[in-house]
Fold:
Amino acid sequence: MTQWLPAALLALFSFGLWGLFSKLAIAHIDSKSALIFQTAGVLIVGIITLSMLNFKPETDMKGLSFGLLTGIAYGVGCLFYLIAADKGKIITIVTLTALYPLVTIVLSYFLLQETISLRQVLGILLALIAIFFMSS
Structure:
């Protein structure tokens, strides 16, 4: 088994729970309040992770800056995800937002000069077709 597979499967399961718990939260509180409590949950995981690093995270300025930008992008994405989930069917919202890797792929192609194979292009097209079927 590849070394990354267990972590990827745990991430997949966690994100699946995140999608479900998000909808359950906004069934009882507004989307902005749900974001506040979600952020508190992330903070708990962050503090546990910080303790695993003996409270000495690496502080390279570029890494730190991109880490902060990652958090900002995540927070903004979560806010709009919760707003959308409050107004629509979670099945459609989760499926559409799960295509976020397409944004990363396109940006990586243009900004990092990473290549995209024909097989990957076909995968992207199939993902877009899946969204069409899931949203109808």
User: Anything to note?
Assistant: Residues 61-87 form the longest helix (27 residues). The chain has a mean pLDDT of 93.
